[in-house]
Amino acid sequence: MNNSEDNVQYGCLFSTNHDLEAMSCIKFDPYQSLLWYGTVKGRVASILPLEDTKYTAFPVFNDMVRSIEVVEDYVLSISKDNFAIYSRGGAPYNFIKTPNMTDIQCSHICKNNNYHVLLRASSKSFCTIDLEQQKEVRVVWDKKKDDCGIIKENNDFIFTCDNKGAVSLRDKQSLNVITDLMAHKGCVYDFDISGNKLMTCGCTWNYKGFRQDMFLKVFDLRTLRPLPVINCSFPPNYCRFLPSISEEYFIYISQSRQVAFSTLSKPTEQNNFFIDQESDHITCIDISPTNECIAFGDNVGTINLLTNSESPVCNLYNYEPNFADPVENYPPISIFNTNIPLNVIPLVPLSPENMASYWPPQFCSPAIRETQPISEGILSNLSMRDRVGYAPNTRSHTEMRYLNIIPYENVQMSINPIYTNGSEQNNESNILGIQDEVEIGSNSNIMWQYQKPILPRNSRLTMDMDSERYNKSGMVSLICDESVPYVSCVIQAMHPIILIRNLFEQHICKNDPCLSCELNFQFRLMSPNRGNGIASIKNFVRAFESFETHRKIQLMGGTLRDQICAFIENILEITGKELDFTFNEEVSKQTQITKSRVFGKLETPKQCIIKLDYSVWNEGTKVGQLIDLINPMAKDSDVIVIFPQISSAHLKKIQAIFERGSYWNFINCKHGQDCINSNCRYKHPSGKERIVEKALGELNYEEISLPQNIRIINQSYTLESAIFVMGDGINDPVKNSTHAISIAKDFHKPTDDNINWIVFSGHATGPITKPDAFACNLDYKVPVAVFYMKAKRENVNMTESKIEIPKEVFWTFPNLALSSNNKYICKEKFDKLEENSIVALDAEFISVDKTDNIKTDEIGRISVVDENEHVIIDDYIQIGSSTVNDYKTSVSGIVESDLNPETTNKQLTTLKVAYMKILYLVEHNYHFIGHGLCNDFNVLNIWVNEIQYSDTVKLCRLQLKPMLPLKKLAFKFLDKVVQKDTHDSVEDAKTALQVYRKYETLTDHEINEYLNDIYNSHILEWEPDKPKAIS
Q1: Model confidence pLDDT, tens digit, residues 163-192
Q2: For the chain, which domains are there?
């Protein structure tokens, strides 16, 4: 087949009537050469489209089949309120119906997991069905959108449309709407995505009703701007890209059987034809995975198949359908024929013994079965890991390794080699990316979620690194700064607590440095919209190092536990004073959560800390009573922080307060209400508690479990997060801590309290159950700080709420240069600064001494120009107390005098002010253009969604080729010489904007020619006085 755009011709392969019912949906099978369709009366059927023969047909519902999805093992049928799972042969597997699945509107198979199906219901919710578990695993409420007609997905976003003419771009993790593209003034009939292009068709509502639009809308997803509309010769109801032919090739179809083909580059040249059918209108279409076949279903049960090949293929890699074995026909025997002996008729032989279906009487009555005793050989090789015993499988090298037919003691088989500590070797990779270099000692008895993650050799952590390897939680993890190892774990524990998160996200002031503002920026950096991400804390650390508290903690020495406790105390004391300040009166009016709303009548937030004193504990005193004895004012706060202060001197008291028995109360007994075991240690619906003495015998005082709820007088508090120090399992974990971890609720999935918990171990995260999270083995895991939040809070907003960065940040802060005549920037300069417009950004870096041996890049100058190339930001950043190792003048254009307030004549400001300016542009949906923006954002420590910026480094690069410098791109694309002697961030930003605009005007073929010329030129110097090597 010739796949050039000018030679593609589609023709009708066949038109046949396979059903007497109107078709409601049609779908090509991506795994077999089958075409599935559903009818308005609830039947599902399939045909072999290239042979025009029926394969299967079976009834599923009593009403219309709204959608069909096909995965490798199942065929999924969706009706108004039901979700049916069938085999391809028509055997039913399961019917799923939940309260959230009412009036299902559309469905979609998730790209990252083919066994997850996303459904949209009229209850303003997105439901996720897990086909492996065959149940609903997630519900996301969408209060902003009333309906959703179609769901599609590309590598970056999930797209939905509504009946108001908008196509919504949603985050893949949270399903929150990032932006809306207004395509039509009425309803969106259909849309499709190919590469960076989005195409839609729809209608317009007016006072006379609705009128179909005679055009197609096309959007560029890189800039989120519409391209010129494509006028159609008839009103389109369906539109599709055909990317296997060309990225610009598309088809649109009307409901009255008219079909047209065209390209985005030549939209006026259209190839039109008419499908000859006996029907009134087309009801559904689908395109095969190879784009060689297009199927149409109509209102009288007719299927039309169009193809552009003489030998079409539906799937490139498919397997043949399974057909039933042919029935062997025996000659009939007449009942009147007495000459045929009866012994020629085969019968199933009967056995005089009991058959396998006959159960012994002792198994037919409800009773608690006694487990078989474990042999001494297994017990001698048993190793314990967090209350679970592991033993080597004596039959692991035999065909019996998966079976349990004969007792172990009757099998003579060599035992797997184990480590000296008794644990089995496990070569499987884990979620936290722990490398093979981790020493295998007693650490192999520690859960891998708790171990310290190790980066591969010659690797460094950045915000744009491969986070999928280290982060499996759906939340943002933080890079641990080894100079201050106590900071990241505390921030990670504070962030999931919504009261604290809202408190700091609604604080902005003019003080610099301000730790409350830095926590605000840090929490925004950990936004749920990022999904699995990794963030840095370097801006917060830079501000914290300017406080005397940092020096005191560094000089105090002590253990990691002491440093964490001191940091929490000081951070609450410092921020308690800072929260009294605000940016201006307008920002103050927007603030909903104040310090008094969270910490009540406490004079300082530091008073919400309770250091447990076990000397005042008496027999029978509970945790809440002990807290009230130690700090009676704590109950006035909605958030309290407990320092357990575990020590060997009070082990028995600690064990009595933090009962180990509460671990088992998280796990439901499988017998439920019918359990008759008086010694059962699991949780029962009746609230029956286990008898600890009989169930476990003597308690191990080295194990405790943190209580999930505590009660102080008449106030109930719920566990939200906790910080632990980890050891190696040999030495005292308090005195010889290896690292700190945080464990917190996954506030994205508040469905199951026992499952949705996350452990943060440095930059690596992973899910963990609540019993495992808060059961502590004091040999290697010791709690340091536990955060509780009041269960019932009056007049407190419990939804995510953050304040907007005010526009005044551009002109409010003075120039720090002492010799400057203009202390403040003119306000009128920003009057024409419109939201959602294009800006170009470039930054220059300098090298700063982090420690004696570590040097890092910091922002030295940052510049932003608007779409008219007018400079709106050109700030030099004051370094503060850090020592500059290298100004990198040759590539940055920065000299020492530029950053000195006494000698500079530049616009000098602090990193906080520059950060707020960029953050304002980000949160007001400005589209960034630049060269190497990923590196700029990484050094600035700000996260920008990929859809919000266009990086010429990535755009102007061929696959498997090195990245090109801006100097070469400007020479080829613009015939312009830049960066001759040194770099200038304003000039680089303007040049990147010009390169991008030139790039937008070129076709894909022209861009490839330009780039190939650059790669093949081998020019080392790009000077204006030298002859140009490229025409």
Answers
A1: 888 999 988 888 888 888 999 988 999 999
A2: 11-307 (2.130.10.10), 464-658+706-797 (3.90.70.10), 661-698 (no CATH), 827-1016 (3.30.420.10)
